[in-house]
UniProtKB/TrEMBL annotation:
This is Hercynine oxygenase. Gamma-L-glutamyl-L-cysteine binds at R87, A88, T89, R90, D417, R421. Residues 16-147 form the DinB-like domain. Catalyzes the oxidative sulfurization of hercynine (N-alpha,N-alpha,N-alpha-trimethyl-L-histidine) into hercynyl-gamma-L-glutamyl-L-cysteine sulfoxide, a step in the biosynthesis pathway of ergothioneine. Pathway: Amino-acid biosynthesis; ergothioneine biosynthesis.
Length: 442
């Protein structure tokens, strides 16, 4: 019944918001006050900024814009406006101390939970299918991933723990998969909580190409390092080489070499680099240089999405590589269930119809594309989520990492960052054109 559907939707909204707050609490209750107010890296905000920013966005979008309520504390709005204060400057702001930040966000949440019961979930574009609530649940989960990045940058003993990811089955996978030429549907017009930049669905013609079956592993990346890849300008773009020199890049972030062995620091623990895991914490420039060294290139965003969603049997694009079912733990390494990517091949149930593995979860995958709107794009509900970033110095990342919650993860989901960034959980896979080989062309 319609009433039953409405009830289920309200429950789903409340569950998504409650899950995001539980994660926020887990990420902020495990450290003492000085660790919440300190800046662990100029790349990041103090955790206490995220804590109140989450509540402030929720107040702005749900209590003020949807429910028409008056601002609760208008004087704090500018402090938590991400456009007004770059991350590096946030520690010098008169931020709410941890106890106040928590109680402010909790007060907003209490009012929002009441609102869910009353809000009409149809007849208004912002509310239909619970979109505005879903947007806020995704926003909080995105900041939870940001806070997890801050934890990774934080020095000192480990405070977070999680069980190891599943092991890879021993059956070998093909090195690459051929994606045949032809149109596919990119983006979505039907996914209820899809953000504006994922819309609308549109046909894209893609030439035939080959794509790695799995993300590039640490073992493969070490070959690039050992072959002098970081010292060979011909593998790098001009900008990439300048950045490599300026930032003195020589290995992924958090790696160090000791007694002939590569070690990495991961959430306060130093351990040998696991060879079968996707490489993580590389910039776009490093990913691009690796691809050239390997005689390949990064996939475009359209190629990535076709490999992930296109079902050649029906011509349809699926919500996820495995089908239309919401992500379950056996499909993909998501939701911070594990604090690292899983070895390649570890999620056979998540394979795409074309045979490509681990597109969702584990590591964000750099693509060769910049951030541009799809044909027919319209900013919704605010220009500052996507539109103001179009055409900027960004590269697109797809698929989501082990730190991404399913609510903020879909085959259509688009993420972006500067090509120098590598504190994010970023890896990549490579591709190549399907050119006839010289043997075939004679
Ligand atoms: C989509 C991950 C690039 O963190 O800057 C959070 C998400 N937007 N608050 C970011 C976002 C506003 C955004 N990314
Ligand atoms: Fe935000």
């Amino acid at each position: 019944t319609a009433a039953g559907d409405g009830e289920r939707l309200r429950e789903r909204i409340a569950d998504a918001l409650t899950a995001s707050r539980a994660r926020t609490a887990a990420l902020t209750d495990c450290v003492e006050e000085p660790d919440l107010t300190a800046q662990h890296s100029p790349l990041m905000s103090p955790l206490v900024w995220d804590l109140a920013h989450i509540g402030n966005q929720e107040e702005l979008w749900l209590l003020r814009n949807v429910a028409g309520r008056d601002p609760m504390h208008p004087e704090i709005d500018p402090l938590y406006d991400a456009f007004e204060h770059p991350r590096a400057t946030r520690p010098s702001l008169p931020l709410l101390p941890p106890a106040q930040a928590r109680s402010y966000s909790a007060e907003v949440r209490g009012r929002v939970l009441d609102l869910i019961e009353k809000a009409p979930l149809e007849g208004n574009r912002l509310l239909s299918d619970g979109f505005a609530f879903g947007m806020i649940a995704q926003h909080e989960q995105q900041h939870d991933e940001t806070m997890l990045i801050t934890h990774q940058l934080r020095k000192g003993p480990a405070v977070l723990t999680a069980p190891p990811p599943p092991e890879a089955p021993s059956t070998p996978l093909p090195k690459e998969i051929l994606v045949p030429a032809g149109q596919f549907t990119m983006g979505t017009s039907t996914e209820p909580w899809a953000l504006d930049n994922e819309r609308p669905a549109h046909a894209v013609d893609v030439a035939a190409f080959h794509i790695d079956t799995v993300p590039v592993t640490n073992a493969a990346y070490i070959e690039f390092i050992d072959d002098g890849g970081y010292d060979e300008p011909r593998w790098w773009t001009e900008e990439g080489w300048a950045h490599r020199n300026h930032a003195k890049l020589s290995a992924p972030l958090f790696w160090k070499r000791e007694a002939g062995q590569w070690l990495r620091r991961r959430f306060g623990v130093t351990e040998p680099v696991p060879p079968a895991e996707p490489v993580v914490h590389v910039s776009w420039y490093e990913a691009d240089a690796y691809a050239r060294w390997a005689g390949r290139r990064l996939p475009t965003e359209a190629e990535w999405e076709k490999a992930a969603r296109h079902d050649p049997a029906t011509g349809r694009s699926l919500r996820y590589p495995w089908g239309d079912e919401d992500p379950q733990p056996h499909h993909a390494n998501l939701a911070q269930r594990h604090l690292q990517p899983a070895p390649v091949g570890a999620y056979p149930a998540g394979v795409s119809p074309l045979g490509v593995h681990q597109l969702i979860g584990d590591v964000w995958e750099w693509t060769s594309s910049g951030f541009h709107p799809y044909p027919g794009f319209s900013a919704w509900p605010y220009r500052e989520y996507s539109e103001v970033f179009f055409g900027g110095d960004y590269k697109m990342l797809r698929g989501g990492s082990f730190a991404v919650d399913p609510v903020a993860c879909r085959g259509t989901f688009r993420n972006w960052d500067h090509p120098v960034r590598r504190q994010i959980f970023s890896g990549f896979r490579t591709a190549r054109d399907d050119r006839p080989t010289s043997a075939e062309s004679v």
